Records
---
Amino acid sequence: MTDFLIAPSILSADFARLGEEVDNVLAAGADVVHFDVMDNHYVPNLTIGPLVCAALRKHGVTAPIDVHLMVKPVDRIIPDFAEAGASYITFHPEGSEHVDRSLQLIQQCGCKSGLVFNPSTPLDVLEYVIDKVDMILLMSVNPGFGGQRFIAKTLDKLKSARQIIANNGGDIRLEVDGGVTVDNIADIARAGADTFVAGSAVFGAANAEDANKYDSVIAKMRQELAQALADI
Ligand code: DX5
Ligand code: ZN
């Protein structure tokens, strides 16, 4: 450990200029593109699908794309996202009738697999499938919308998830999603996260005229993470 990854959520980007927005956050030092897929069924909102993922690849984005499926069911759409250039595909266990099968499907398609846990969802489902999981994603808000407040209980849950990963001995990333800001990212890192989704905190950071608008927020997050690393 520990390579910290910052994953801006494009949910809060300007969709009319999406390619440019993604180029700008990556140029500002982001590591991963977090791609929120919502279906107005599993969550009460509707966003983007494989066509947009493929369009970002076609635009020239080479960074990992972290596809967060907030859809139900999940299996039908997994191969389409793999084909569209997804690097990670994560889903909520509530979205699949057969969690083990869906995890296998993601890996068979050549992607890294992940399970996403809502604030109220226990981590128990990991027990028998952890060998098929490359990423554990803890939601620190209820899924569906950007701009919500971080749920503090997630810090305890991160510690539990970090312990599960340590007990397993596997190479599994621990991601957190929802309400992550410059002010709380260090505490979240100290609790065990290594991958940080941030939507509104990054894309809402500055005025649109400034070409380097994302540099300072990402630099501040890195400073906070460096401080946390010194404490770990
Ligand atoms: C919420 C999404 C998040 C969202 C995070 O359902 O999964 O990725 O974009 O947004 P912020 O960082 O604004 O809470
Ligand atoms: Zn997300």
---
Amino acid sequence: MAAQLSFESLKQSVNDGIIDTVLVCLVDMQGRLMGKRFQAQNFINHSWKETHCCNYLLATDIEMATPEGFASTSWESGYGDYVMRPDMDTLRLLPWLEGTAMVLCDLLDHHTHQDVPHSPRAILKKQIADLATHGWVANMATELEFFLFEGRYKKIAKTGFRKLTPISDYNEDYHILQTTKEECVMRPLRNHLTAAGVPVENSKGEAETGQEELNIRYSDALCCADNHTIAKHATKEIAWQQGYAASFIAKWHHDKVGSASHIHQSLWTTDGKAVFADESAKHGMSETMRHYVAGLIKYAPDYTYFLAPYVNSYKRFAKGTFAPTKIAWSVDNRTAGFRLCGDGEAVRIECRIGGSDLNPYLAQAAQMAAGIAGINEKLELAEQTRGNIYSDDSCPDIPTNLRDAISCLQSSTMLRSSFGDDVVDHYVRAGQWEQEDYDRVVTDYEVARGFERA
Ligand code: ADP
């Protein structure tokens, strides 16, 4: 990908006094931007080659706690440094922040300067390299769904998250009138992201009160994950600037529909031929596509953790909410975990399992690994499932809770051989910690239910 902002243009803009700050960022396990705000001149003079960060950034939970049990770092090893090496292809302006540019970094071992194997960008790059040995690239798009609430995060937190008022009062799926009232957030979001080199296709109202969707044009997998991460971050910042709170939690209320991040995927040759397309075959799917989709289906339990990484993520899988509950594929059917979309060159598979809380690097990498395994094993794709798949008991369930998903990840020989044992063990530990912390805490639900009547 050509940088949206070249190093030379950055130097010029700093000289001209247009840019004074460069955000130097990594992507953590939760898919968030972490890093430092550099004085732009210092970045240009020194830090554009590398800077450093504490290696606990890939071993914390969402609250920045430091759980034990990670082989890569610990209190015993003293939580040393990683090298952050800017990927200058990702240098760009952030037009919604005054005088600010940003760059994404790869994380390297401080001593060997090798990729940190469990860093999300490295995991995805490994799958991209595996696919390249076939002469292919993956084109991906990750839809972003989220909710907008009135008031900023701090004000909402002070209410104990009890006074959550969505930006709209009714289901705003495809509504133009309601979304006009939300343009104070969504219009700057679309325009600023476009100016930052993130190719926004559109935004739309989604199928719940206060729910939005942002669509970004598909691109190669790494660029897609970078775009997703920057867009998610921008959504939170721009909503905050406008006095609203954006939430990407997968399910904020049990009576409301959850938020997804559907992943559209297709394979292409390096010279731009659609590997998935075969107009003469059934549904226009090439044999390679059929193997890929069969791999996605066979290994869905193995990688569900990467599509649903929190206890809360599993509450989204509910019948009749457009979130899937079954592992099945179907042609243009939104009750299926895997929906066949498009025709001709545009034929692609959409995985509908992932929630808005997924890390796009990990989610895409795990699915590519499954698809590649399907191709290598020449897996046969069963007939599509038709009709209302929610009530089709012949289809296997998506793991229904985090505990089951972690156990499937832990015993996945496919992911162990593709990602490496160290990487799988690292994320198994991250998942176990999420479950342990949840199991420790007494929730409002339990107290209200049992306080008097138990
Ligand atoms: P829908 O609304 O039916 O889910 P869209 O037409 O809005 O589908 O497309 C959803 C996403 O799919 C968009 O982000 C688009 O860029 C992406 N997309 C389109 N063609 C491809 C393809 N060949 N491979 C991967 N993603 C694609």
---
Amino acid sequence: MNNISSTIIEPATGAIGEKLAGRVALVTGGTRGIGASICRSLASQGASVAAGYSGNKDRADQFIKEFERDLDGPGRATVHQGNVSRPEDCRRVVQEVLQEHGRIDILVNNAGITMDKMAMKMSVEDWNQVIAVNLSGSFYMAQPVLEHMVERGTGRIIFVSSVIGETGNIGQANYAASKAGMLGLTKTLAKEAAFILGRSGRLEENGVGITVNTVTPGFVATEMLENVPEKVLDKIRSQIPVGRLCHPEEIARVVHFLAADASAYITGQVWGVNGGLDM
Ligand code: CAA
């Protein structure tokens, strides 16, 4: 049971399609875990990717090596260091990506951290840091990218929130609040983007437009789960109707679906990918 390697997954190697040919995607936390899967998935549809990372330079170098080894599509990859909880880093990274790639069509706000403790034991620092990275960081990235997208009249912003933002979880007051906050941020930015395009007469019948959506993953088999005590993980697994953890690729395929031009009529929505955990 819950044997992660036993499930058939769409391989994100080589060019699989052309849905995102010529597009440029900036993915925060893009060099490992769910973020790296998202980069590979977007690239498999022809996109170039700019992957953000905060501290692990070795992992970033490895990401580039693996990308160049495995993906033979037209897109290329770059990596960009920055701490999303610092607005000045976010603006700099956005400028770097614009300089290197010329445009940003897709922003995936994926960078996130956990600092799990029971609420009564949670320090102010634990609270502030998780909110700063997960929620404020999403806003700091979205703001300059949205400016650029509004100028061009097209774009896709996709937030990677969590099922925990919808259900709450023991030990995750800070994380749940940050991920729930992303849902409100998504809906507001989706309304504002459509409003601004409409006001300037740029909402076209069959246009690409600017959409903002959120994916809410369940428990995904990545490094983030390593700190969860085994007994707790067993309890969590037993609550997942499909009986296993999620593979990062299963999140990535929803992100690339939402990123496509043809997804123009989906905006302000929350896409659950959680094995039925929230039913
Ligand atoms: N669900 C159900 N029961 C839980 C639980 C959870 N999420 N977390 C803790 N418990 C239970 C434990 O099983 C334990 O029960 P028993 O006394 O019956 O054994 C009890 O609560 C106390 O737990 P601990 O003994 O571990 O107490 P602690 O004070 O040492 O640690 C804790 C508390 C920090 C919350 C720790 O239990 C923990 O890290 N829990 C995991 C929290 C979690 O689920 N994190 C998810 C990380 S992945 C993620 O966040 C990505 C995403 O989007 C899903």
